[in-house]
Fold this protein.
Amino acid sequence: MPESIWHSVPSDDTDLWDLGIAGHSILPEALGILSQIQSIFDPSVREQTLRVYSNLNQVASYMKQADGTLDFSRLPILELFVWPDRSISLWWTTSFMRVAISLESDPGESAWYFVTTKQLQEQRALGKLPPSNSSERLPVLQSLLWNVYNNV
């Protein structure tokens, strides 16, 4: 994907609901994921989760605009899991891989990871999730989404 697709991405102060996440997700999602996000107890984790969810949909939309042949409906369902420590994981899972984003109360501890099975040479990668106001955030999410798309 050309980097030029990021020139028109809204700034971080854009209202989350104006970013098209309320009922207009381009990604296959678990039923009621927005209700799940809204019920997250920790306000910091809730806002991070909404922003990442919105960012993922932005990335998918921009990727689709850049290449009209992309069909995101074939992706696995994006799932949300709340851990006992109240952190959140958003993930895609197939029989060959898992891509996940872990959101913590302290945004500096939020991370992403990608793991595969033997069929895909047991690859592993992980890293810190860039802050929402960082120019690195959307390209990282694009890379994760691209890995899911290409390994379904």
Observations:
- The chain has one domain: 17-150.
